[in-house]
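Hi everyone,

Forwarding the result from last night's run.
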Amino acid sequence: MAEVTLVIAFIAGLVSFLSPCVLPLIPGFLSYMSGISVSESEKSSKARLIVFLNTIFFVLGFTIVFSILGVLINSIFADAAFGIRTWLGRIGGIIIILFGLVLMKVLKLPFLEREHKFKVKKFRISYVTSFMFGLAFAAGWTPCIGAVLASILTLAAVSAQNAFYLLIFYSIGLTLPFLITGLFVSRMQQFINKYERQLNYVNIVFGILLVILGIMVFTNTLSLISNFAPLQNIFNV
């Protein structure tokens, strides 16, 4: 069961990156942090390296925040009594279902549509600025990734013993495409421009997955996933 939820957390990180109101901004955002334009990064290998290093510091910032969250959730909920865990599963299941419906655009939750921004001052050293932006990115949920991240945090609370690993795998899922973009900013800009409309369906598909996951968490049947033969074969390879 743990392996499956970690895969879900990883996919959630990818979905957060592919959110339609986040993805188009990323190439320009990375260029802003590094102080190098998309066109400059295409012409010079040194410029590409600077953008990539700034991307590393950026992802390091939000990974640290998510790791701390995982540790905190584990320390708070890991030793909860059985009765509390049962009710936590029911409440958490409902919350995950609601967030799934939000991603499917069936439901609107106004508080998820607010941006919680932290002002980040630009430092003389761009890597420091990128790191601080990473911290702010994790702390200030944008409307696009709020439902996805909140679902993983809820799942972490329900499965507190795996909370740290869930947040780490979420961070990895979010980090990998950021690093790829940092390496190939210009090409990623072209990819985004070409497939931006199709990427809108990513949230809907993941929303359906969250609804199914929420139902299983609510009914305490998440362990059935681990008994599903095809998945057993995948994780036993």
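Residues 2-235 form one domain.

Cheers,
N.
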